[in-house]
Please model this.
Amino acid sequence: MVSVVILADDLTGALDSAVCFANRGMVTVVAGTIDAFAEALRSGSDVVAVSTSSREVSAKHAWQRVMEALSCMCFNPPVLMKKVDSRLKGNIKAELDAFSQKKLKPYMFVCPAIPSQGRRVEGGRIVGKGVSEPIDIAKVVSCDLPLESIVNAQNFSDIALALPSNMEDYLFVGAAGLAEALAIRLRSEMPPDRQIELPSPALFAIGSRDPITKAQLDKIRSVCAIIEAPNGKNLHVQANGRWRDVKVTIVEMVSGNETVSELEAGRAFSSGIVQRIQANAPATLLACGGETAAAILNEAGMGLLTVKGELLPGMPFAETVFNGQKITVVTKSGGFGAEDAFERVLSSIR
Model:
């Protein structure tokens, strides 16, 4: 029976919150689309998360998508979480209005703090690393939100100790810090550590142009050939036999000679990557950039991901099926991770 349901407005958020429960040994599935959500709920998993892909759309469409997702549930889950961006980007008020209309939970517990990343809640405002001006949570979430619903948190213990004993009565609104606290409350013991090995051949799809990602790539340019995809165009898809002799293929989206929109470049990039997957059947796919990962998985029809854990902090890995074959999927946000992140990923490929 499903114990936890998480709704996130993008795929990265769904994976980043769901992996907290997978790390505790709970069977965890992420639906990359609302269409896959009903199947995920029937999977018998402990934890089910879904991406409503509603962050970059209008408030009206965000409300509609959340309502559609909630309508897939024929039960009121013991733990229900709305994963939000820790700086409250997106259509949070509209999405929470949809939850309110469904009347699933009588109370809200709101805490978007991520203390491990230096992001805190003080006096009902988000402050800390990456926050230039304090963000008033009540103004963004709802002016009618009771002040006692907002939990101040300087550190992780503040979140964990504030959790109510009757969790079934609450809609939990927060980010990875809150997901971690909920996971520990539900399952306090960690499973034994295990060495994670990724199967080869591997395909790295680098759709993010974030400076952090560039620095991570620069660390491996001397040991790996990196194929450039100008304006997202993937050229020269190699034949299957030759490709399988290569342990890792890295494709990086770069600027081209022509000026195109990010949307157009992203579509070209994801389409080209899917062609590579179809032609060469990699055993591991690493998708860097939240929009990149969502676009590739959606176009490839890989709508259901079984989350296995974290390869590195902030880099969840999961298993899915493509054309009848199992494939391991690793995702990474563009602006996240240590400078040696890709070096460490390479060392885990067997």
